[in-house]
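User: As part of a screening pipeline, I want to sanity-check one entry by hand. Below is the sequence and the SMILES for zinc ion. Please return the complex as structure tokens so I can compare it with the automated output.
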Amino acid sequence: MTGTVLHIGAHPDDEDIGLLSYMSHKFGVRAVYWSATRGEGGQNRIGPYKGESLGVFRTWESLASRALDGGESLYGPFIDFGYSKNGEESLSKWGSKEMVKKIVRAIRMVQPQIIVSRWKGISDDFHGHH
Amino acid sequence: MGKATYAAFDAAGDPDQFSELEKQGLFAWQPRKYYHSENNSGGDLKAGGAVNIFGRINREFERDGILRINTGEFDPIAGCTFQEQAWLAYNKNQTQSMGLAPKPGDFFYYFSLYKSLVSVPDRETQMFDGLDPTLTGLADYPANGSFFLRRKLDQVKECVNQAIQEFRTDNPVSASKPLLESLSILHEIRSGLEKEDLESIAKKAIDFYLAGKIKDFEKVAAQCLGLRLECLADTARITPGQPFRLSSKLWNHRDIQIHDAIFKIGCPGGWKIHSIQPRFRTQIKKANLIKQLQTKFLRLHIL
Ligand SMILES: [Zn+2]
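Assistant: Here is the complex for your manual check:
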């Protein structure tokens, strides 16, 4: 199989992880999860790392996840500035054109037949980054 | 995020948009289908997320235009379900205190089809419905039905099937022959692309795709042959300008006859190799080490 699915989300734990495991293990297709940020703004319930160090730590966590679910991880260059209630804030901080460009870059790099967007960009999505 | 993804889906296949990415070797590529995840069973809303924790059937989503997959299916290779593997993976997010107990049984995810450039049944049963997810899918897009590509890729698929038939976990060497044959066909396609009547941007995208595929085949063929290449720097962190030593070893675990091995160092653009002093050692029979390269104080500079 050579098919590829590119799953797109904002944070390292947004992914529909069952999808990655199912696509990669059942069909042998490439399942790539692209996260816009490394989750620097999230909580840390096991240690003192915050901000950038937490981003590094969460990158390792994601890679450890991928080693088990058979997927691959890619990241955008955006900084997770913490919990945000609305999408406008994210678009203005990250730059909407820049966001589109980075996703286009991921698509052209991965060359997927299928895109699965974790979020719809509506207020139902629980977080302004979504 | 969601909004930017819509725009990116449309822009990715348009060579006039973000054409500056071509400098990075990335060319227009149009995904064929666009799905949304549906949050079918809630989750820890206070934490700002909506993880599909329960994987329950959701009657609201049992309709046309929405695909349901059951990740609770059993994976005979892993000996557990796809979802059990997924939770074990998800639990690696320890800083986020993820702790989901893997258990067997049905587990559903729903995906609504937002856009499709190929015709699909009203009620899909698999994400790749309407698409050819095998190598020949490349002949549909971006090769626009190219006869040459389809014929050649069909040959590669035949070789792969043969390799699967011949593969034995205790001795995978015989599977390597059809894999190496696939490799030469893939190289043939790459060099034959130029003559094909296709837009140059499509040719570039196919070439980029095949380059990645060739690496995949090389990796699997080497594994079947029991060949392993090791390349180690003597320090874990290197700052620009710092001299360091690099050693490369090629291990031949299955005593494959090798006529020659040449080591070459590939550096990213802007790096400069100042001196290389290779010291080849002859074959060490017992350890199956066939060749060793040591570059002494290879200096790399970021210019
Ligand atoms: Zn999130």
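Points to compare against the pipeline: The beta strands of chain A are 4-9, 30-35, 72-75, 114-117. The mean pLDDT of chain A is 92.
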